[in-house]
Amino acid sequence: MLLLIHKPSGITSHDAISAVKKYLRQPARDALTEQEKSAGIKPPKIKIGHAGTLDPLASGLMIAATDKDTKLLHSLTGSDKTYETTIDFSQRSDTRDLDYRKLLEPIDPSMYEDIPPLSQIEEILDTLIGTPSLPLTPFSAKKFEGKKLYEYAREGKPIFLTIPMTIYGYKVLDYQFPLLKLKLHVGSGTYIRSIGHWLGTQIGGDAILISLKRISIGDHSLDFFEQKTIHIAQWDDKKIEYVILGDII
Questions:
Q1: Tens digits of per-residue pLDDT, 152-175?
Q2: Domain ranges of the chain
Q3: Are the CB atoms for 15 and 46 separated by under 8 Å?
Q4: Helix, strand, coil percentages, rounded to 5, for the chain
């Protein structure tokens, strides 16, 4: 069974998957008789996996699959993705977003010689179209010699890597300096935090992401939630919407 999940900000991708898994098992749990419950019989286990992890502060689309359909996830992981993000040119942090371990000294707007006009921002963004090499934040899940970068960073041994990323296009949704809202169409393995940070350095300062929402993965998008029956799972005080696309295999 293939599912689309709309993860809210403030929980991990694992939390979202766990919540949906619990709700998927609920009908079988409810079908157990009191005698079966007393005998310790439990509903059948459900195998569930997902393609593409979102950071805790990020929201948006996740694709999950259960049981035999989990075989499809590998092909979906490499799909292109579309995000909406808001970049703040007045802040900086070690993680390059608001989920920081250390908030660095704020950027004094006066350090910018002039407020960059939108035309300048767009000229810089135009240079990213293609496969630019951009620096990763040390607080990344990218692996290096068998360990995730954030594991090195938490040990006080940050690793700084620059990797090629793929950017197909962008659209400026709003610009009121120091905030820039963008829609970005990117390839798999592209880090939006890297784009935000790099853009800040190109205009003479720095930047962090203050919001990030994934709106599509390949041919699947949040628009599906307007066309399908929406189910609700709960994780603490967070409601997690999901839709069931059905069995594929």
A1: 888 888 888 899 999 999 999 999
A2: 2-78+218-246, 81-217
A3: no
A4: 25, 35, 40
Q: Which of 15, 55, 114, 247 is catalytic?
A: 55
Nearest to 64 by CA among 142, 140, 141, 7: 7
- Type of residue found at 232: I
Q: Is 236 left (phi over 0), alpha (psi -120 to 50) or beta?
A: left
**Superfamily for domain range 81-217:** Pseudouridine synthase (3.30.2350.10)
Res 103: pLDDT: 57
pLDDT for res 112: 67
Residue carrying the six token digits 């660095």 = 104
* Nearest one of 186, 192, 194 to 217, comparing CA atoms: 186
Instruction: Extract the tokens encoding 33.
Output: 């008789």
55 is annotated as an active-site residue: yes
| CA-based max dimension of the chain | 75
Q: Which residues pair with 3 in a beta bridge?
A: 64, 244
